[in-house]
Amino acid sequence: MRKSRFTESQIVAILKEGEAGVALSELTRKHGISRATYFNWQAKYGGVSVSELKRMKGLEDQRLVSRFLGPTHILLPIRGCGS
Question: What residue segments make up the domains of the chain, in order of their start?
Fold first, then answer.
């Protein structure tokens, strides 16, 4: 998958500019994106603040780690425990 030129925080900032009333044609020209990209971002990130985005990313990372380790990591014996 291709890496985005923009971070999620930058995308949210661009969307906030659009919500503030900047014309779409000016916004897309200024940032070098297409109208379709803007509307895709709006569908994905619309109404999300940067802090909420970071919190969701943290929850997603935790979910991936727990999926990778699975439930068996709880059952593993701890070394040096004396048992």
Answer: 1-48
Residues 6+ apart with CB under 8 A from 48: 12, 56
* Beta-carbon count within 10 A of 15 CB: 19
Going by the DSSP 8-state scheme, the letter that residue 80 receives in this structure is T
What's the pLDDT tens digit per position in 31-72? 999 999 999 999 988 877 777 877 877 777 777 677 766 665
Determine whether 64 is exposed, middle or buried from the number of CB atoms within 10 Å of its CB (0-12, 13-18, 19+).
Answer: exposed
* Among 18, 63, 62, residue whose Cα is nearest residue 38: 18
Taking each helix axis from N to C end, the angle separating 8-19 and 24-31, rounded to the nearest 10 degrees, works out to 150
**Residue 41 tokens, joined:** 């971002």
Confidence (pTM):
0.63
CA R_g for the chain: 20
